[in-house]
Design brief:
Layout: H1 3-11, H2 19-30, H3 38-51, E1 55-59, H4 65-72, E2 78-83, H5 86-98, E3 105-109, H6 116-119, E4 125-130, H7 137-144, E5 148-157, H8 174-191, E6 196-201, E7 207-212
Parallel strand pairs: 1-2, 1-4, 2-3, 4-5
Antiparallel strand pairs: 5-7, 6-7
Helix pairs in contact: 3-4
Pfam families: Methyltransf_3
Family: Belongs to the class I-like SAM-binding methyltransferase superfamily. Cation-dependent O-methyltransferase family.
EC number: 2.1.1.-
């Protein structure tokens, strides 16, 4: 069975947004801006409805699509979202402003690897969403996981990276080989983080959900 066909079949059941959000998504996809796949986004929204997080940190804003969708899933969480590309950041700010969500979504311009001291003042976070430079996933996880509330969850997107994590050493393209290796290393590393209960999902381009164990969950 063709996995991409199945993925499109599942995505066909995702309800449509209002016109302004549909426009943001459509334009982003047409321009090749990496935004979350529809079925993955729908799952993340449902996860937020289940978990009811009050504060969310997103690493990788792009044009603000996922931050907007996360907030609108239940209109509760405050979302702090980091973007290092200034043009993307400006566009995200405009999209947030146009939807009148300035008091709920706070885009931050800068390199997530250098903003920990600024971001920690807004924590702790009930949910952290990592969807930025793939070679930096482990760094971001290590850097920001101390800001996760007890029992909170870290969601890592694109963990399958278009299938490149499977036998990356046999890829001919050097960049693809490097990225495939890096994401595979991250997945292997994440599976060994015993402070977290992690489940790996093949939904979309792959998601990892890592829930921080509470003190009572640890056993000798």
């Amino acid at each position: 069975m063709d996995y991409e066909v199945l993925s499109r079949y599942i995505a066909s059941f995702v309800p449509e947004d209002d016109e302004s959000i549909e426009r943001i998504e459509k334009e982003a996809r047409e321009r090749g801006i990496p935004i979350m796949q529809r079925e993955s986004m729908a799952f993340l929204q449902q996860l937020i409805r289940w978990l009811q997080p009050k504060r969310i940190l997103e690493i990788g804003t792009a044009v603000g699509f996922s931050a907007i969708k996360m907030h609108l899933s239940n209109r509760e969480p405050l979302i702090y979202t980091i973007e290092r590309d200034e043009a993307m950041y400006q566009e995200a700010c405009e999209n947030v402003k146009n939807l009148k969500l300035e008091e709920a979504i706070y885009p931050i311009l800068g390199d997530a690897g250098e903003l920990i001291s600024e971001i920690k003042n807004n924590g702790p976070f009930d949910l952290i969403f990592i969807d930025a430079a793939k070679v930096q996933y482990q760094k971001f996880f290590d850097l920001y996981s101390p800001l996760l509330a007890d029992g909170g969850t870290i969601v890592s997107d694109n963990i399958l990276f278009h299938g490149l994590v499977i036998d990356p050493d046999n890829l001919e393209n050097r960049r693809a080989k490097r990225l495939g290796r890096k994401m595979n290393q991250f997945n292997q590393w994440l599976s060994k983080q015993h402070e977290y209960s992690t489940v790996f999902l093949t939904l979309g381009d792959g998601l990892a959900l890592s829930t921080k164990k509470r003190d009572k969950d640890f056993k000798d």
